[in-house]
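Deliverable D5.2: sample structural annotation.
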Amino acid sequence: MGSLSPVPNLPILDLKQDHNLKPGTSLWQKRCSEVRQALEEYGCFIAEYNKLSPEFRDDMFGVMKELFDLPTLTKMQNKYDKPLNGYVGQIPKLPLHESMGIDDATSLNSTQHFTNLMWPNGNPHFCECLYEYAKIAAEIDGIVSRMIFESYGAQKHLRSYMDSTCYLLRLIKTGVPNGDHEHNLGFVSHTDKSFTTILHQNHVDGLQVDTKDGHEIDVHFSPSSFVVIAGDALMAWSSDRIKSPSHRVIMKGKVDRYSMGLFAFNSGIIETPEELIDEEHPLMYKPLNHIGLLHFYRTEEGYKSECPLKAYCGI
């Protein structure tokens, strides 16, 4: 584990925190290089991590089913001022998709607020499960972020980046396709707007990722695994060394897919470190306001742009 696996699946990297994988060790340096290589080649990879027990996963997906079984009007109360954060569903062109968001999900108060909105009489088990999951996913994101910064020799910028990072946890249900027609699109092709995304799912696959050479990878990953995806903000930070991959959800079979994505958003200004700029890699983006980028995606210009990131802050 740790060597890059061939297509048709994504690279699989072992990020389990045993006594060998510590910053400064030869294994850490090796893994940093592999993370960078995987992101530069695919924009994403599968991470093995050993913090989710089978019992905890069962609990977690059980409370997610409980959440999505609530009345639609209750779920629609999930609203935020930030774009892309609240309830999404009841879309005729995307009948299989329904999702909700918990902003600042690594804060117990934020998860409690979401829980109280859905269950005014309380649901402590739901709150505990989602809060614990968000912390584990944020641990993975912290490891990956450190490896990215270190692999480019930009570790001096890591602290300021992490200190201004906030996590959005999106809870997603993708329903079973209607057998009367061939419509099996769970979610449209898109790139993530985050810096990084940590994705986990139940046993139902569906994620499909585009490669740089125009192929499509149907991603299969184990219950102990996560998919790490580069977002548009990382693409800007890396000055196009890492491209945010286009991906979608295609549903097959007769079982609902439950998944969760932890999205890293930065409240500060993201700019390409000087360590990443040279003759071969010129500066491609002006410093960007990450939340401003989210709002731009919602404008007419953002919708019409072939690459909204370049339209917003490209040089």
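Annotation notes: The longest strand covers residues 165-174. The CA atoms of residues 93 and 236 lie 31 Å apart.
The annotation will be released with the project's public dataset once the embargo ends.
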